[in-house]
Design a protein that fits this description.
The complex is a heterodimer of chains A (about 950) and B (about 210). With about 950 residues, chain A is an alpha+beta fold. Chain A has 17 helices and 51 strands. The two termini of chain B are about 40 Å apart. Classes of the chains: A alpha+beta (about 950), B mainly alpha (about 210). Chain A: It is found in: Nucleus.
Chain lengths: ~950, ~210
């Protein structure tokens, strides 16, 4: 039918508005609505002869005037089921159909409703719109059974999977979400696959399952309709043809063989989906915004944006198969309201339904019906075919699940996780994505037809080299980046496209220093980059190491399939699978760290993960510590303590402020984690706008203790960890005979910090009456000053027992120091060797204390005083003055002022005691002890420091 | 804001108010690595690329001008927040919505210097203009209600620029009303403030005053 279709006015509108049209299941009635009209009309088409239903000008439609504002969506339940309408007035109403009597209000929203959908059995109604969340309403008792939240824009299209497993929804940004109906979870989120109409409310995105539920049709970005797989959400194929503008509406023929699409170009096309070709078309004066196939027979109802509707007879040429051929009609039955029973019921009702249908309209459509009848005569054949299809689809689903990899593991971690490149984001159609993102910069790629554009950007625009963008014909999917260059690699795609590794140095004196390697029958899985070397781990479990200029230096074997690799400086870390997953779903991973320069292996062992999680990040911090991050949001850092172990230092669950935050880690340093916060449902950052790093503090997974000072305890743990790291480094550097003054300073300030922390803990111990713990803590204090601070604390909290204990500790400490005065002068002569000189007699490494010596010696060894730097004394003053301030949050500062005088009294007390006990050791001791304590307490700077703190 | 008040008699000029507003803090995302700046007004930084930090507006603008950072638009400057505020302003004719004290100046500075960092910049600009107009209209209509019995006017959430515009007028109006209300004050004013001719010319007003 090539002529222009005549349209009849149903709704009056001033401006173009979205209208909808629906067929009754027996084809006798037609319901129409319009977004600028408050009425819903039910047109009775049975009165005039069925052949000419398009021109029934005589019968007046049933008018439903229940909405206060324009009706934006209508939906029809199965077979004589209720008619639902949603409107700008925020309400959803139900009517009897086709009578048109009002049944009731279903629900109210706070914002306009944009779309409605019934499931196949009619037991559920989904409604959504500008509100946050899709409401699933049980039609039996009109209760809200679930609210699905996840869309950012207004939801404009909903479609229930005919098999009742999923619900698909689309929003005005063009994002499609597959929801699992049984759990309400999001299975797949396909971002921006449809046109973005967020700024244009006159066009609503829509989507629709094929009646057999095997694929989902979504309008595409290139004036096409794209089909997505039922289970995996993967793109299957698209229907692209003569639409000159985006497709705005479509409808599947009842048998799923044909698809009617209408575009913004005012055309309606009929497609043969199997052939992926358009078979018929019609142009209209206005844009068609609603389409509906007649459930029985070969007709299509259309409605345009000005509210005029019409019926297009025989849109599918009579010579072709009828659009209703092979339809399984679902007869509603009160018994079959339950979903499980419904499946059973389908089988029974299908034949009676189709028979009814063919009898009913035997005279109307001649040729298609007769053929259909012939087909229907052999039900066994049809059944068999269906079963075959079913098996086929299951098989495909299995396959695709295997292919899925990353996403699959998240649901049930029974598979070994795939290799991944650190800092990459998965590809998204038509969008730039990260091949690599680290603290230094990023490598991004945008795929265009057949090739992509790769860009390298440094975060620090002041210092990083400017790198020209490049066109990439290989299809690189992984990259690694450091200051000197970047390495790119692609997996092999078929036989023609071999896996390639390419290195681009950023600054080189030679012209052509870019190089690439090709791998035959081998595939690069991950790449890493370090100081003057490039590493790639391949599918053959080879670790290949190249120099910066492309020389093939080493080829090592890795123990199992690689998972990830990271490089920094001379160190390369490689994680691989040690065995198949455990039955509990835990990944069994193994890690090795190589020093490429020295050709040694520094760390080797299992990589711990949180149960049922997988590795998502691996990397080195700036100071060369190794860390791993898993999908449950736990960061572990490798430490030499206890012969090399992984310490959990961060947990996303604890740090998370709101439920919908995902942390995408970028890096870490000694005390902090750098990450990009992604709002759910996204778990990856997008390239534009430029992501901003968030800094999160480390926190140990501490048990909740009776102290009620979790933060301080956490700080205590972290400072201890830091201190041990620094001590180790100092030791290492001293072994090489390097200068460690800077590190010494750092260690000292850490010790002071630790002492402050311990003092706070002592205060809270005093509060909660944990005296033994307080004494233990006091023993951990590293400087005598802090110990004296501790004594003031216990004095203030009126605990004489503790005061005595602490004084004893202080005495012991002083005595110890006096017993070993010999090495001090040598240690003094060059301050940095103080550590090697210190005898390791302390209870724990935390008790080692050189700064104490620094602080004490000025009295005894006058000539060397100059060598103790002024900064250090300043620090001491600070530490001194800040200890009382930080005693405890609850304590009164004004009280602390009094403590100054108390301290002095105490000192005399200590002095007295010291004298009493040290008489045995000799006068020398006591005199030095007094000389020690007194001047310190009277340090003239102290009041100034105090004043400074107050201001 | 239309020139209802003569700017020359304002206590501060617009530029001066803007200068004061430049001390407000704002978040920036630097794209350079720089050590902390130790300034008289405080220490800012250290600046690490892509890691947000908080600095005074003047510093943010200075860095932005050199292309060293991008400024993060404050929460209240998003289109949705501003739309809400505008609606609320229109709905409640007697109240002002809480906005930053220097919202006019901050938004002006950001729109001038960091327009590429503001999402939907045109929308934001027009919304802020609308809000300003609506609010000033409120101030104007509020001024009309001032009568001889008004001793004080309570204006909650009024912003710096708005206050600055109406303050001289308002103070003088109240003063004038006060003077006219109390005869002693009028006599005093006679001697002290004889510059004002309208105060001197009080013959007819005398008749009107006793009610």
């Amino acid at each position: 039918m090539g002529r222009l279709l005549k349209l009849r006015e149903a709704h009056k509108t001033d401006a173009p508005a979205t209208c909808s049209v629906l067929w009754a299941h027996d084809g006798s009635h037609l319901a129409t609505s319009c977004a600028s009209d408050t009425e819903v009309l039910i047109h009775d088409l049975s009165a005039p002869p069925p052949g000419r239903s398009g021109s029934n000008a005589g019968s007046s439609p049933v008018v439903l005037r229940h909405h206060k504002e324009g009706v934006t969506a209508i939906a029809l339940g199965p077979m004589a089921g209720p008619l639902a309408s949603g409107s700008f007035d925020h309400s959803v109403k139900l009517y009897n159909f086709p009578v048109g009597s009002f049944q009731g209000n279903v629900t109210r929203f706070t914002l306009p409703i944009k779309s409605l959908a019934f499931n196949k059995s009619g037991s559920l109604l989904a409604a959504a719109g500008d509100d946050d969340g899709i409401k699933l309403i049980s039609t039996i008792d009109l209760t809200i059974s679930r609210v699905l939240k996840g869309h950012r824009g207004s939801v404009t299209g909903l479609s229930f999977d005919p098999k009742h497993d999923y619900l698909a929804s689309i929003d005005s940004f063009g994002t499609v979400i597959y929801w699992e109906l049984s759990t309400g979870k999001q299975l797949h989120t396909l971002k921006s696959i449809a046109p973005n109409y967020n700024s244009d409310s006159s066009v609503l995105n829509t989507l629709s399952w094929r009646p057999d539920g095997e694929m989902l049709a979504v309008p595409g970005l290139r004036n096409d309709v794209v089909m997505y797989d039922r289970d995996t959400g993967e793109k299957l194929f698209n229907l692209r043809g003569d639409h000159e503008k985006s497709v705005c509406s479509f409808c599947w023929s009842p048998n799923g063989k044909y698809l009617a699409t209408s575009g913004l170009d005012k055309q309606v096309l009929i497609w043969d989906v199997d052939l992926k070709q358009d078979i018929e078309r019609q142009k209209f004066e206005e844009r068609i915004c609603g389409l509906s196939w007649k459930p029985v027979g070969n007709s299509l109802a259309v409605i345009d944006v000005v509210g005029r509707f019409g019926i297009w007879d025989n849109p599918v040429p009579v010579s072709m198969k009828s659009p209703t051929e092979g339809v399984v009609l679902n007869e509603p039955h009160p018994l079959f309201e339950d979903e499980d029973e419904e499946v059973l019921g389908k089988g029974i009702s299908c034949y009676s339904g189709s028979l009814d249908d063919s009898i009913e309209k035997g005279s109307g459509d001649f040729s298609p019906i007769s053929r259909k009848r012939v087909k229907k005569r052999g039900p066994s054949f049809d059944e068999g075919e269906e079963v075959l299809q079913e098996i086929d689809s299951r098989k495909r689903r299995k396959e695709s699940e295997n292919k899925r990899g990353d996403g699959g593991i998240r649901e049930r971690a029974v598979r070994m996780q795939d290799a991944f490149q650190v800092g990459f984001t998965p590809p998204q159609q038509g969008k730039r994505r990260f091949l690599c993102y680290n603290l230094l910069g990023c490598v991004t790629s945008l795929e265009n037809d057949g090739f992509s554009h790769v860009e390298v950007d440094f975060h620090d625009t002041g210092r990083g080299p400017r790198v020209p963008s490049m066109t990439d014909y290989f299809g690189f999917t992984m990259a690694a980046l450091n200051e000197k260059g970047c390495v790119l690699a692609n997996p092999c795609k078929g036989e023609k496209n071999m896996s390639t590794l390419m290195y681009r140095p950023f600054g080189s004196w030679a012209n052509n220093s870019e190089w690439s390697m090709r791998f035959e029958l081998e595939e690069v899985k991950v790449v890493a980059l370090g100081k003057n070397w490039v590493a790639a781990v391949t599918s053959h479990n080879f670790l290949r190491i190249f120099t910066e200029s492309g020389l093939q230096m080493h080829i090592l074997s890795v123990n199992g399939p690689v998972v990830a690799a990271a490089g920094s400086g001379d160190l390369l870390a490689v994680v691989n699978h040690a065995s198949d997953c455990l039955s509990s779903g835990d990944q069994v991973l193994e890690i090795k760290v190589f020093n490429i320069n020295e050709a040694t292996q520094t760390i080797s062992g299992r990589l711990p993960l949180t149960p049922c999680s997988h590795l998502t990040w691996l990397g080195f911090s700036e100071d060369g510590r190794l860390g791993s991050f898993d999908s449950k949001g736990n960061l572990r850092v490798y430490s030499d303590q206890f012969g090399g172990s992984w310490l959990p230092v961060f947990s996303a669950d604890k740090a998370r402020k709101s439920e919908d935050e995902n942390y995408w880690i970028v890096g870490f340093n000694a005390t902090k984690l750098f990450c990009i916060v992604c709002k759910s449902p996204e778990s990856y950052p997008s390239v534009m706008p430029k992501p901003v790093l968030t800094i999160l503090e480390f926190s140990s997974p501490l048990a909740s203790s009776d102290l009620g000072a979790d933060e301080v305890e956490n700080e205590f743990m972290m400072t201890n960890l830091q201190l041990s790291e620094i001590r180790k480094k100092i030791k290492d550097m001293e072994a090489f005979g390097l200068d460690v003054t800077a590190l010494d300073d750092e260690a000292f300030s850490l010790e002071v910090k630790l002492d402050r922390c311990i003092l706070k803990l002592i205060a809270s111990c005093c509060h909660s009456d944990r005296l033994v713990r307080a004494t233990e803590l006091a023993r951990l204090l590293s400087t005598q000053k802090s110990l004296k601070g501790a004594i003031t604390i216990v004095t203030a909290s009126k605990l004489p027992i503790l005061q005595e204990k602490f004084s004893t500790i202080l005495e012991e400490r002083m005595l110890d120091d006096l017993k070993t005065p010999e090495p001090i002068p040598t240690g003094r002569s060059n301050g940095k060797t103080a550590y090697s000189v210190q005898p390791p007699v302390r209870l724990s490494p935390m008790m080692e204390k050189s700064p104490d010596l620094n602080n004490r010696t000025p009295n005894t060894i006058k000539p060397q005083i100059k060598s103790s730097p002024a900064t250090e004394t300043l620090k001491l003053v600070k530490a001194r003055s800040s200890t009382p301030e930080n005693l405890a949050q609850g304590e009164d500062i004004s009280k602390e002022r009094e403590l100054g005088s108390k301290l002095e009294k105490l000192a005399t007390f200590v002095k007295g005691k010291g004298n009493a006990t040290s008489e045995v050791t000799g006068k020398d001791v006591s005199s030095s002890a007094t000389g020690n304590v007194k001047p310190e307490l009277k340090i003239p700077i102290n009041p100034f420091a105090r004043v400074k703190k107050v201001t | 804001m239309a020139g209802q008040t003569d700017h020359s008699i304002s206590i501060f000029s617009a530029a001066e108010v803007e200068f004061i507003a430049e001390d407000e803090m704002i978040e920036i995302v630097p794209n350079i690595r720089m050590n902390a700046l130790n300034l008289l007004c405080g220490d800012f930084g250290p600046f690490l690329p892509q890691i947000p930090c908080t600095v005074p507006l003047w510093l943010a603008v200075a860095l932005k001008k050199r292309g060293k950072c991008s400024i993060r638009t404050p929460d209240w400057m998003s289109v949705e927040k501003l739309t809400q505020v505008l609606e609320a302003e229109r709905e409640s004719p007697r109240e002002f919505q809480p906005l930053p004290f220097h919202y006019v100046e901050i938004s002006r500075l950001l729109l001038d210097h960091a327009h590429d960092d503001i999402p939907e910049v045109y929308m934001v600009r027009s919304l802020i203009e609308d809000i300003r107009n609506v609010r000033f209209h409120k101030v104007e209509s509020g001024l009309e209600t001032i009568s001889g019995r008004t001793h004080a006017v309570k204006l909650k959430n009024l912003s710096a620029m708005e206050v600055n515009l109406v303050r001289p007028f308002m103070a003088r109006v109240l003063q004038a009303f006060y003077k006219h209300d109390s005869p002693e004050m009028v006599q005093q004013a006679d001697t002290s403030a004889s510059k004002r001719p309208q105060v001197v010319d009080r013959g007819p007003r005398r008749d009107l005053r006793p009610r």
